[in-house]
């Protein structure tokens, strides 16, 4: 499936994770529709594969800024460069993400899922603020429906969303501690945080016409799923991947939410592929949202 994209010449989009499975297709599709795409890439060789995909005739529509989005300094530098270069941003797709199989800390002392799967999205939503508002941007956060259910094998029983208890948390560095660390839950919690912060930010963005929505792209055969397939099922990896969506199918959801004229003005929604879906009640809790924004702001103020 390939998404039908309207003509978007004179639009600027920031797409993260554009060197990977879905992001590469999101970026290339937007570029083919005339959009100028900016991305932040930590590996220049991987950025070259994106350049090869779009072809020399389209290279002038791609701007690659070097940086590791899990690092505060890199994110802030990239955001400053983007705001200096682009007066308006019309689309922001926070797509970069990863699942880490063990407990790792970012260079800023934050657990890696928090750093990459949450703070990178929060950081760009808030540090590209002026350009997003001037562009009346559509922000699309690529989340994951694992935020509704952390069980990897769902043969019986009720969905088990991740916990998000910020009551005694005074620093995001205290989230997902080493003791009792479960990688998959840490990943899902970070996605829940992204959706929660996105809901909270819709209120301040609304007067300027900026929308914030989140998506679950489906289960898609990209790099990230190799690690997510439980060890016991890895001998069947090839078969399992065949049953998954293609990266193009997965990319279609974010592309639609970012560009479909019928979705103009739609904000504060979570789309599970084609349909609006619910997220855990805690993501709508105003006190949790406030605390999360306060902690996140403090992280970037250091
Ligand atoms: N695949 C699925 O079934 C699925 C389901 C639900 C949600 N998602 C979400 O979809 C998004 C896209 O993932 P994908 O499936 O397309 O996986 P992918 O192929 O592994 O792509 C991940 C992208 O994120 C980038 N990235 C990772 N760490 C980064 C860092 N520190 N700084 C900058 N960029 C970084 C990667 O860059 P490099 O090229 O440098 O590695 C790559 O471009 C993720 O947010 C993921 O959580 C995926």
UniProtKB/TrEMBL annotation:
The UniProt keywords, alphabetically, are: Oxidoreductase
Keyword Translocase belongs to the record: no
* An MF annotation (GO) of this entry: oxidoreductase activity
Q: Which Pfam families match?
A: adh_short
- Which InterPro entries would you find in this protein's record? NAD(P)-bd_dom_sf (IPR036291), SDR_fam (IPR002347)
> Which regions span the lipid bilayer?
none
Instruction: Identify its protein family.
Output: Belongs to the short-chain dehydrogenases/reductases (SDR) family.
Q: What is the name of the protein in this document?
A: Retinol dehydrogenase
């Amino acid at each position: 499936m390939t998404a039908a994209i309207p003509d978007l010449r004179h639009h600027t989009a920031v797409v993260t994770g554009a060197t990977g499975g879905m992001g590469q297709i999101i970026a290339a599709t937007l570029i083919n529709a005339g959009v100028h795409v900016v991305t932040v890439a930590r590996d220049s060789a991987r950025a070259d594969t994106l350049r090869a995909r779009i072809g020399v005739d389209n290279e002038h529509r791609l701007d690659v800024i070097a940086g590791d989005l899990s690092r505060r300094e890199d994110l802030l530098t990239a955001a400053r460069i983007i705001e200096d270069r682009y007066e308006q941003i019309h689309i922001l797709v926070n797509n970069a993400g990863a699942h880490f199989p063990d407990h790792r800390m970012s260079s800023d002392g934050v657990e890696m899922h928090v750093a990459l799967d949450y703070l990178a999205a929060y950081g760009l939503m808030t540090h590209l603020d002026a350009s997003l508002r001037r562009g009346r941007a559509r922000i699309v956060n690529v989340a994951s429906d694992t935020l509704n259910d952390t069980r990897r094998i769902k043969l019986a029983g009720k969905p088990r969303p991740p916990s998000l208890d910020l009551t005694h948390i005074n620093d995001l560095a205290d989230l997902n501690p080493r003791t009792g660390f479960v990688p998959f839950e840490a990943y899902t919690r970070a996605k829940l945080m992204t959706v929660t912060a996105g809901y909270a930010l819709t209120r301040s963005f609304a007067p300027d016409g900026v929308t914030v929505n989140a998506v679950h792209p489906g289960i898609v055969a990209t790099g990230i799923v190799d690690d997510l397939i439980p060890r016991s099922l890895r001998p069947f990896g090839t078969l399992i991947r065949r049953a998954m969506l293609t990266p193009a199918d997965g990319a279609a959801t974010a592309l639609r939410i970012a560009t479909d004229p019928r979705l103009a003005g739609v904000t504060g929604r979570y789309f599970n592929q084609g349909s609006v879906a619910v997220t855990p009640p805690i993501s709508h809790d105003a006190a949790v949202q406030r605390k999360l924004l306060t902690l996140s702001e403090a992280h970037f103020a250091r």
